[in-house]
Design a protein that fits this description.
By secondary structure, the chain is α+β, with helices and mostly antiparallel strands. 44% of the residues lie in helices and 13% in strands. The chain has 13 helices and 15 strands. A 3-stranded antiparallel β-sheet has the order 4-3-13. A 3-stranded antiparallel β-sheet has the order 6-5-10, with helices on one face. The protein has a 3-stranded antiparallel β-sheet with strand order 7-8-9, with no helix packed on it. Helix 2 packs across helix 7, helix 3 packs parallel to helix 9 and helix 7 runs antiparallel to helix 9.
């Protein structure tokens, strides 16, 4: 491999990773340093490094690596933006997007997923530098390699890449036309959403450590042994017997020796810790997904859950709009220049409504009562092979009038479809009346 995430233009990058034992004080120092040069770092003359966010990235990565909740939140976010939800399409004269199936298949693969994840990470980390190599994989016919350049070596506001983290020379200027075809710098304009989650998670980490110590101290019962003997040897013997009882399941004592278990009365002291942990998890989920219930939180009633689902879908729609804009403004023109896809195509997420299985079934029940739905569509949506649709009339006759052979009570007011839904049979069909023993 001539390139990778740790290289730029084939040159190996040197970075320092410090993602353990992070504290809130370190976070505060990095925010202060970032604010000190924020107004001038984009226009500073060459030779000065004012936009080094490597230590801030260390804090972000430490929280992402060591906190299971935020990791699950990011996984939930990625599940909503990846997959077969997007396409390449053309706009017809009516303003409708027509999917280009052949070219859409070119952008569905592991390498293209890296591009979409990189765009989303630019909102989380604040910036992403993507390297799109023009080579095509002969086996798949898709892009062979896409890399996300190590953020510790990228100065987003100064638009430069450093070979060695924290050292200006040698470096590469991203404004150079030689790099603009294959390299895309995506910047959200701020420090990213992780700047708000990092202090919370750092506080949560120490809260969890204190909670563990609290549980060890007050959560475990104490076994109390009492002996009448004043000999230290007898006391040590009884202590050893009690200590070994966990394995031996047997304790041998003297006639007047006593063994009892001292348990602490339950209190609400542990809620100090659990409350803080739940608060941090809720804040992180609300910031990234818009709702804590979508990240595993429990709601008390159905109406609240549905309200959170609506907020969650609106937040996902914001992410998708951001991805569409970056794709159409930065990525697609480069793919066209490489000759990978033809001109005139736009990246677009489908307008498919995201809903749970129960709501999806109700929607299809509503549609199939009014429109004929093909068997292929049912198989595509639910994976079930179905035959002919029963509630669709094969032949419609006498609309607005009386169909031959119908009951004398049928005045032809209802349409054939309404007649079928009301009586459960087609107009004109013969049904045996078992009460009268005749046909009606």
């Amino acid at each position: 491999m001539t390139t990778s995430d740790s290289t730029f233009n084939g040159e190996l990058l040197s970075s320092i990773f410090r993602t353990s034992k992070k504290t809130i004080q370190e976070y505060v120092r990095e925010i202060e340093r970032n604010n000190r040069y924020r107004s001038v770092r984009g226009d500073i003359e060459s030779g000065y490094i004012l936009d080094d966010r490597s230590k801030l990235i260390d804090l972000y990565d430490a929280c992402l690596q060591q906190d299971a909740h935020i990791r699950s939140v990011i996984e939930t976010l990625e599940s909503q933006i990846l997959g077969d939800r997007y396409m390449l399409a053309r706009i017809n004269e009516k303003g409708k997007y027509i999917k280009d199936v052949q070219n859409t298949q070119k952008i569905q693969g592991s390498q293209f997923d890296k591009i979409i994840k990189g765009i989303v990470e630019s909102k989380l980390y604040g910036y992403t530098l993507l390297e799109i190599m023009p080579t095509i994989d002969p086996k798949t016919g898709k892009l062979a390699e896409v890399n996300s350049i190590e953020r510790r070596n990228v100065l987003p506001d100064q638009k430069a890449v450093l070979k060695r983290q924290g050292i200006w020379e040698p470096h590469w200027d991203l404004r150079n036309p030689a790099y603009q075809r294959n390299y895309v710098l995506i910047s959200s304009g701020d420090l990213g959403l992780f700047s708000a989650t990092t202090p919370l998670i750092l506080a949560k980490k120490f809260t969890v450590a204190n909670y563990v110590n609290f549980s060890h101290t007050y959560g475990q019962p104490i076994i109390h042994g009492k002996t009448v003997s004043e000999s230290n040897a007898d006391r040590k013997r009884l202590a050893n017997e009690i200590a070994n009882a966990a394995q031996n399941k047997v304790v041998v004592t003297g006639i007047e020796d006593e063994v009892d278990i001292k348990t602490f009365t339950m209190s609400n002291s542990e809620k100090i810790y659990t409350g803080l942990i739940e608060f941090v998890n809720s804040e992180v989920a609300n910031l990234v997904l818009g709702s804590e219930s979508m990240a595993g939180g429990m709601q008390s009633y159905v109406g609240s859950t549905k309200a959170h689902q609506d907020i969650f879908r609106e937040r996902i729609e914001v992410y998708r709009r951001y991805i569409e804009n970056i794709m159409n403004e930065e990525i697609v023109p480069r793919l066209v220049a490489m000759g990978y896809i033809p001109a005139g195509l736009e990246f677009k997420y489908s307008n498919r409504i995201d809903m749970n299985n129960e709501d999806r079934i109700k929607l299809y029940e509503l549609i199939t009562d009014k429109y004929e739905v093909s068997a292929d569509e049912i198989e595509k949506e639910f994976g079930i092979n179905v035959g002919k649709q029963l509630n669709v009339m094969s032949s419609i006759g006498g609309i607005g009038g009386v169909t031959p052979g119908v009951s004398h009570n049928d005045r032809g007011i209802m349409s054939d479809e309404e007649y079928y839904r009301r009586y459960g049979r087609q107009r004109g069909s013969q049904v045996a009346n078992f009460l009268l023993g005749a046909k009606s």
